[in-house]
Amino acid sequence: MIPTCHPRWLGRTEFGAALSLQKELTARRAANEIPNTLLLLEHPPTFSVGIGGHREHLLVNQQELAQRNVAYHAVDRGGSVTYHGPGQLVCYPILKLNEPGQGYHHYLKLLESVIIRSLAGFKVRAFRGRGQPGVWVFTGNARPNGSELLQSDHFQMAQIAAIGVKLDQNHVTSHGFSININPDLTFFDLIVPRGLPGCRVTSLVEVVGKPIEVGCLLEPVIQSFCQVFEMERITAEPSAPVLLAS
């Protein structure tokens, strides 16, 4: 039997509320009360730091965050400090990984494949970064050749999508990935992205050079997710939040 996936669009959702929902859904997925679920949403401006991160990679203090009306959360996912905000599509898969070989690192690779495939529809050449979870592009949307890669500052790697996930004792996933579509990139100046000094961050709008809204990525991400994870898309229960219908 083909596994199923239930995509749910939650719109603009406060980070803490999304954490509570994930906790509820992971428990229900572990008990087989719900199918595999893909939550898609945006967050208000928020910084979060994972269990592998360091608070000092957030370059502003709590008072400055309050003045900017930006939330802060320490969370139980992998990864370092990251930013979430309007113009960024956030995806939280709630999946039970019980197939042979579907461990943590394999799962990360599959999520990267979802993102790369989704961006390919916009003619963006995205790729994995060696030893760094997430998806990257070269500025200018073109890959330089040979020594040009090493010598030219014009062609720099920039992260367009970040990944930070949790796999619990029941092999159920939470947290997930975010794709920068048209966020305010100046918020990334307030952190050390991925804990990597000098790490540059970009957006889909910056790469393609034309306006793109978050809604334009919903269908590409859902379709790519179902293809990569070999799942059949299903509709929502009547009581569930808004479903992206097929």
What features would you describe in this structure?
By secondary structure, the protein is α/β, with parallel strands linked by helices. The protein has one domain (4-233): Bira Bifunctional Protein, Domain 2 (BirA Bifunctional Protein, domain 2, 2-Layer Sandwich). Helix content is 26%, strand content 27%. The protein has 6 helices and 11 strands. The protein has helices spanning 15-30, 62-68, 104-120, 147-151, 204-208, 215-228, and strands at 4-12, 36-42, 46-49, 71-74, 81-84, 88-94, 127-129, 132-138, 157-167, 173-180, 232-233. Strands 7-8-9-10-6-2-1-11 form an 8-stranded mixed sheet, sandwiched between helices. A 3-stranded mixed sheet has the order 4-3-5, with helices on one face. A hairpin with a 2-residue loop joins strand 7 and strand 8 (132-138). Helix 3 (104-120) packs across helix 6.
